Amino acid sequence: MLARFYQYDNHIEIMNPGGLYGKARPENFPTVNDYRNPIISEAMKVMGYVNKFNRGIDRVQAMLKENGNPQAIFDINKLTAFEVSVKESRDENLLHDLFPGTKIGTKINEIQEHILEFCNEPKSFSEIAEYLGYRSRNNLKKKYIEPLLGKYLQMTVPDKPTSKLQKYVTIKV
After folding, report:
1. 3-state secondary structure string across the chain
2. Mind listing the pLDDT tens digit for each residue in 26-49?
3. Is 76 exposed, middle or buried (0-12, 13-18, 19+ CB in 10 A)?
4. What residues does each domain of the chain span?
5. Residue 95, exposed/middle/buried by CB under 10 A (0-12, 13-18, 19+)?
6. What digits encode the pLDDT tens for the residues 120-144?
7. Verdict on whether the full-model pTM lies above 0.70
8. CATH for 4-87?
9. How wide is the angle at C-alpha 95 spanned by C-alphas 92 and 100, nearest 5°?
10. Cα dihedral sign for 130, 63, 145, 142?
11. CA 20 to 30 Å from 56, out of 10, 29, 32, 83?
12. CB of 172 within 8 A of CB of 139?
């Protein structure tokens, strides 16, 4: 049996053959993990394809959080399969709630909502990144700040977008 991927309107499911293995049990998962073939696992590490064991779930959960998705849900109660379900990004927060004049159906994600609330007073990009706990500044700017510019967020020095004095402030409605 091969891994199976199912895509639905609001989530995806990934199903791998086999359940928890070795030392991994429902009561200690995902803290404890084990490998069906430790020889192949160790070879993958030696060859540089794996840098740390037992970090995959934590890394995926962090990426999902950064993307605005809820945490992955693991179904470890199936006897013959291990299932992971990932829900869609939390884009259900409507801009209309924050900006009453906004067209119904326009969406904003939770991170953008936090940015707009935080920027009631002008804030630098570094202040926004620190407030949100972001390390990937490019992702923060492209995914969350740039889509807000002009409509919901404005630069304090619009003629010089890369100015070290640049700050961002929520447009008052």
Report:
1. CCCEEEECCCEEEEEEECCCCCCCCCCCCCCCCCCCCHHHHHHHHHCCCCCCCCCHHHHHHHHHHHHCCCCCEEECCCCCEEEEEEECCCCCEEHHHHCCCCCCCCEECHHHHHHHHHCCCCECHHHHHHHHCCCCHHHHHHHHHHHHECCCEEECCCCCCCCCCCCEEECCC
2. 888 888 878 777 788 888 888 888
3. middle
4. 4-87, 93-170
5. buried
6. 999 999 999 888 877 667 778 888 8
7. no
8. 3.30.565.60
9. 135
10. positive
11. 10
12. no
Q: What distance in Å separates the CA atoms of residue 84 and residue 69, rounded to the nearest whole number?
A: 14
Tokens 């620190």 appear where?
130
Burial 23-45 (b: 16+ CB within 10 A, else e): ebeeeeeeeebebeeeeeeeeee
Return the amino acid letter for 49.
Y
In this structure, how many other beta carbons lie within 10 angstroms of the beta carbon of residue 152? 20
The one-letter amino acid at 48: G
Q: Give the amino acid at 100.
A: P
